[in-house]
Amino acid sequence: MIKGLPSMPKITMMPGTDRWRATIEAAELLLSQAADEMNGYYADRSETWKESYAAEEHRQREKAIAKITKALEEMVTLW
User: Fold this and answer.
1) What is the Cα Rg of the chain in Å?
2) Alpha carbon 63 to chain centroid distance?
3) Rounded to two decimals, what is the model's pTM?
4) 40-61: string of b/e by CB count within 10 Å (b at 16+)?
5) If you ran DSSP here, which 8-state letter would residue 39 be given?
6) How does pLDDT run across 4-56, given as a tens digit for each residue?
7) CA 79, chain centre distance (Å)
8) CA of 78: how far to CAs of 25, 49, 64, 71, 75, in Å?
């Protein structure tokens, strides 16, 4: 359980594959929400900040989230 977030419900009546796909789709949704928030955060910063090392680190994190999200999308299509 992540601090501040409720735990995911256990869906024991679903077959394993469907349950795992649903969990991966939920993870994809959470990462997409984080990416949207990060984009908004970046857009709201000053031009000076956007030229800083902190901004570069922020962009690297955004790229990492994008890669993970793409991998999750690909996983879902396999099932």
Assistant:
1) 16
2) 11
3) 0.73
4) eeeeeeeeeeeeeeebeebeee
5) H
6) 766 766 666 667 788 888 889 999 999 999 999 999 999 999 999 999 999 99
7) 20
8) 12, 41, 22, 11, 5
Q: Where are the beta strands (DSSP E) in the chain?
A: none
Structure tokens at 56: 């570069």
Q: What angle do CA 26, 27, 28 make, to 5 degrees?
A: 90
Is there a contact between 43 and 59 (Cβ–Cβ < 8 Å)? no
Instruction: Give, in order, the Cα–Cα distances in Å from 70 to each of 1, 12, 63, 75.
Output: 24, 27, 11, 9
Cα(62)–Cα(31) distance, integer angstroms: 10
